[in-house]
Amino acid sequence: MLSLVSTATALAVASASATAGHAPIRWEDLGVGPIALDLGFFALKWYSLAYLAGIVLGYWHLLKMLRQPGAPMAQRHADDLFFYATLGIILGGRLGYAIFYAPELLTHPENLIKLWEGGMSFHGGLIGTVLAIAWVSWRGKLNFVRVCDYISVCVPFGLLFGRLANFANGELWGREAGPGVPWAMVFPGGGPVARHPSQLYEAILEGLVLAIVLLVLFWKTRARWRPGLLVGTFTLGYALSRFTVEFFREPDAQLLDLAMQSGLSMGQWLTVPMMAVGLFFLLRGLMRQPVATGGALPA
């Protein structure tokens, strides 16, 4: 992610220039692009690297969490989750994109498998991950809610990297920004107008901020002893973050009519049930007695 770090520096300089009354920032001038590493015979894209980094970092942190007293599963369960959750993210993310954003893909299965052309849904990936957790929990006789608590702490890593990859790809840009937004950018395919870099807004709120909140709750408080508190915090926090950022993000072209008629984008409609679910588990975790400490790992 070194290229993205240098991009952040360039962005700060460009923003200062825009504040001084210069031309708006042009995405192409930041030196980013979809390719992270090009060896000629093989090209590694930021999007692929973001998925890989998020899954590997999440797995590493999960193992670190499991070394703490009272963990709801053993390492072998984490190994199973690593495999099944990866499948859930990829298959659920792609199917979710087809169902929620591009139904035409369902009538052309040959295009549905073309992951390299882009098109993944967080909500679809979330459903796939929940199904993976449910399967591993049922097979291993684990507490499903407590397993979700531990997994939820690791999810913002992937969200952070994924949104940064969206920015590096120059995709999912924001709505037109007014003259009072010095960091607004002109994106390829977004016309000549300066737009909100909504990918970065999402990276900050859904990734960085949510990660800090959950890490503090896990490592500095006794939140992990209250089943549902961590997963409720994640679900509600993500839903509120996504709902807010969608006001600055350009709706998908094929769903523009939905946004205009209802006043809310598809992304916002999908976060409404998440808010209810997150609030339920958050309150449930706060109201119920904490689980007993010092329990042994499951057999």
UniProtKB/TrEMBL annotation:
One Pfam family this sequence matches: LGT
Annotated signal sequence range: 1-20
Keywords assigned: Cell membrane, Lipoprotein, Membrane, Signal, Transferase, Transmembrane, Transmembrane helix
GO molecular function: phosphatidylglycerol-prolipoprotein diacylglyceryl transferase activity
Locations listed in the record: Cell membrane
Main location: membrane
Pathway linked to the protein: Protein modification; lipoprotein biosynthesis (diacylglyceryl transfer)
Record flagged with keyword Oxidoreductase: no
A GO-annotated cellular component: plasma membrane
Protein residues bound to a 1,2-diacyl-sn-glycero-3-phospho-(1'-sn-glycerol): 163
Topology term for the membrane: Multi-pass membrane protein
Top-level taxon: Bacteria
Gene Ontology terms: biological process: lipoprotein biosynthetic process
Transmembrane stretches, start-end: 42-60, 81-100, 120-138, 150-168, 200-219, 228-245, 265-283
NCBIfam families per record: lgt
Biological role stated in the UniProt entry: Catalyzes the transfer of the diacylglyceryl group from phosphatidylglycerol to the sulfhydryl group of the N-terminal cysteine of a prolipoprotein, the first step in the formation of mature lipoproteins.
Family label: Belongs to the Lgt family.
Protein name, per record: Phosphatidylglycerol--prolipoprotein diacylglyceryl transferase
Natural source organism: Novosphingobium subterraneum
Protein's gene: lgt
